[in-house]
TrEMBL record:
Gene3D superfamilies: 2-enoyl-CoA Hydratase, Chain A, domain 1, 2.30.42.10, 3.30.750.44. One of its GO terms (molecular function) is serine-type peptidase activity. SMART domains: PDZ, TSPc. It comes from Sulfurirhabdus autotrophica. Residues 407-445 are annotated as: Disordered. GO terms for cellular component: outer membrane-bounded periplasmic space. The keyword Hydrolase applies. SUPFAM superfamilies: ClpP/crotonase, PDZ domain-like. Pfam families: CtpB_N-like (PF22694), PDZ_2 (PF13180), Peptidase_S41 (PF03572). The lineage of its organism: Bacteria, Pseudomonadati, Pseudomonadota, Betaproteobacteria, Nitrosomonadales. One of its GO terms (biological process) is signal transduction. This is Carboxyl-terminal processing protease. Keywords: Hydrolase, Protease, Serine protease.
Length: 471
């Protein structure tokens, strides 16, 4: 029996070495990894592997053990590193193209439960009232405690038109909420737009996908044609935008910035993780794609611009807001953003799976690390009460609230940033009742709601800037 266990241990040891090689565990790649392999730790791993194979109450396949071991290694690093099995890897690839099945929730893991980062607009989760910060504790009759994040996500996905019941804890509620949702094939419309009123355009980006930059260019062109004259101002709405593709964030920034302006740079341990991305087509186009920004109206680079953001604005949306703010191209209005300033690289493995590994932090042109801090708006405007429910800013979930979140990475906590306008004190007053009042119903399916307090404040500011400009 002992020799059999030793044989299993040796096989396990060899397998671990193979896994490490597949994850680019190489002494040549980085000086810091040039130390000898941790033989004692690997021996302990092989002993545990052998004990599970011989003594666990039920037989366990090697594939499951290694899969869980890899998953544990990655999930123990930070909230965004993860192991992607074949299904999860395919879903990730499909999701960046704007179509994915399921409920429409950006999620993470906390205390063994699924925590909602942000519901995605125009999805079953969004329409059912799921909110940022909600803690999902049960899927149908199955408690989530003990599941991995991938397992929970798999259960939430399913055939369109089938139902699933979520049991949700919310800080503002005294007892769990039971919410039944109908799964759907979610086709996420990345860019929505409308003339807010004559002369003033409004563009909302719900998520940064493969064609977001191209769709933005079409939206700008359409708004100019509908207005039948150059626009006087523009509102770029990034509220509750959970992020997405980095090149799309560069494309959106490039639409409003001067050519070759620095948009974002990244710093990591490997040379591949160190990048400087500017507002040039090489950084946002893929392959031989035609430059969709070259025909934009020239005035789009100079018209007054206000960017709206809130605690649900994360990752790519923070890159855009930070770039526009540092270059003083836009006034950023709203509330503090989520604070996800890390770069995840998807590294495919040879068996159809992949790992999503945090490889760098990103920095705004002025040198600010957004990680665990977020973008501070130039003008702080709190959200009004929605559908009669009070909005408590302290209940918003942010990166710094997540377990094992990556540190900011700057000893001065981001104080090397280029100077930006000092944020105003948060609005203390609520909109008056009546037209645009706090207690009127808001239809989430509208592109523009007359009761959107933050948007109304942005439009008022644009009009004020227009008056000053005319003088």
């Amino acid at each position: 029996m002992r020799s059999k266990l030793q044989q299993v241990g040796l096989i396990s040891f060899g397998a671990v070495l193979g896994i490490m090689l597949s994850l680019n565990y190489s002494a040549i790649a980085d000086k810091e990894t040039s130390a000898p392999l941790p033989i004692d730790d690997l021996r302990a791993f092989s002993e545990v592997f052998g004990k599970i194979k011989s003594d666990y109450v039920e037989p366990v396949t090697d594939k499951k053990l290694f899969s869980e071991a890899i998953n544990g290694m990655l999930s123990g690093l930070d909230p965004h590193s993860a192991y992607l099995d074949t299904d999860a890897f395919k879903d990730l690839q499909v999701g960046t193209q704007g179509e994915v099945g399921g409920l429409g929730i950006e999620v993470g893991m906390e205390d063994g439960f699924v925590k909602v980062v942000s519901p995605i607009e125009d999805t079953p989760a969004f329409r059912s009232g799921i909110k940022s910060g909600d803690l999902i504790i049960k899927l149908d009759d199955t408690p989530i405690k003990g599941m991995t994040l991938n397992d929970a996500v798999k259960r939430m996905r399913g055939k369109p038109n089938t139902q699933i019941t979520l049991t949700v804890l919310r800080k503002t509620e005294s007892k769990p909420l039971v919410i039944t949702l109908t799964r759907a094939v979610i086709q996420i419309k990345s860019v929505k737009f409308k003339l807010a009123e004559p002369g003033y355009g409004y563009i909302r980006i719900t998520q940064f996908q493969e064609h977001t930059g191209e769709d933005l260019a079409k939206a700008i062109d359409t708004l100019y044609k509908e207005n039948k004259a150059p626009l006087k101002g523009m509102v770029l709405d990034l509220r509750n935008d959970p992020g997405g593709l980095l090149n799309s964030a560069v494309a959106v920034s490039a639409a409003f910035l001067q050519p070759n302006a620095l948009v974002v740079y990244t710093e990591g341990r490997s040379e591949d993780a160190k990048m400087k991305l500017t507002a040039s087509k090489e950084n946002y186009l893929r392959g031989a794609q035609d430059d969709f920004l070259k025909h934009l109206p020239p005035s789009i680079k100079n018209i007054p611009l206000i960017t709206l953001m809130n605690g649900g604005s994360a990752s790519a949306s923070e890159i855009v807001a930070g770039a526009l703010q540092d270059h003083k191209r836009s006034i950023v209005m709203g509330t503090q953003s989520f604070g996800k300033g890390s770069v995840q690289t998807v590294l495919p493995l040879g068996n159809g799976t992949a790992i999503k590994l945090t490889t760098a932090r990103y920095y705004t042109p002025g040198g600010r690390s957004i990680q665990a801090k977020g973008i501070t708006p130039d003008i702080v405007v709190e959200e009004a009460t929605i559908n009669g429910e009070s909005k408590d800013p302290s209940l918003s979930l942010r990166e710094a609230d997540l377990e094992r979140h990556l540190s900011n990475g700057l000893k001065d906590d981001g104080k090397t940033a280029a100077p930006v306008a000092k944020p105003a004190e948060p609005e203390k007053t609520k909109p008056a009742k009546g037209k645009g009042g706090a207690n009127e119903k808001i239809d989430p399916t509208e592109v523009i709601s007359k009761n959107d307090y933050q948007l109304n404040q942005a439009l008022n500011l644009l009009k004020g800037l227009q008056i000053l400009q005319n003088k």
